[in-house]
Known about the structure:
Strand order of the largest sheet: 1-2-4-3
Distance between the termini: 76 Å
Strand content: 5-15%
CATH class of the largest domain: Alpha Beta
Helix content: 55-70%
Low-confidence stretches: none
Number of domains: 2
Largest sheet: 4 strands, antiparallel
Radius of gyration: 36 Å
Mean pLDDT: 89
CATH architecture of the largest domain: Roll
Number of strands: 8
Amino acid sequence: MSFSSEVKEELGKVMPAARHCRIAEIAAIMSLCGSIQVNEFDEYQIRIRTENLLVARKFAQLLEAAFGVRGTVRVVRRMIPLRARNYFVVVEHPEKAEQILQALKAADIYGRLTGNSGTISSLILQGTCCKRAFLRGCFLAAGSMSDPRGNYHFEIVCLDRRKAEQIEQIMNTFLLDAKIVVRKKYYVVYLKEGAQIVDALNVMEAHISLMKMENVRIEKDMRNTVNRQVNCELANIAKTVNAASKQVEDIRFIQKTVGFGELSDGLRDIANLRLNYPEASLKELGAQLNPPVGKSGVNHRLRKLSNMADELRLHQCNAI
């Protein structure tokens, strides 16, 4: 099971205690995968269609909890892709359907549709708890997220820009910094930052999934920290090796051209030590001198030898 499916499974078990929150979650699912049917007698039916059985079950449970309505669940097998299924939840009783539409502010007290273009009435989303339920319903109906062990990505897909903008606005009331991108014919509300996705899980009350993601984030952060330290150490080692190699090259050039006879005692000692211990650090070289010399002192002497080698090379070139 994917991480996204685990999140939806957890959210499917969250039943809001308050009726107004149940209505907000019903409204979200209706907005993203529902439709209103009108028969020849101008009577309403409510229907949602989803490829996820969990969403169909949650919608039916919400209807029963909020309105005492038992929606009819139907399964339709599609030929393409092979053996894929669509799940329908239908409220066929006209009076019950009208009652639900009125509660969703999709119909007025006379049973006339309000024509709000699929966006949810702000009257349903006044409370923070209702906004949480709304986002939970949106994610169940049309959301997904990537496995946190890879790249962080959370999204809710809409067919209508106004719906996407409403979801974005509600998410941003929780300081989630959601954004919208157009993907083909869809409007996608998304989050990319791991911390923001953790906050979104908290808003939707997916606390178990939140802890799992936090554990993964901690492991990734630790791994990244270790990798940075290892890379830093490797870079320092490479730098030290390259510097030592250049020092040995310079000292051998001096030895070959003019010898060590003209060198001071301090330069001669450090030159011999570097030739004998090409992989030693500056601190280790300084410890073998008599008297011992610190890293800066050893570095100063080696730099003088390097400058001497450069001058000898320049003189040799000018002579040619």
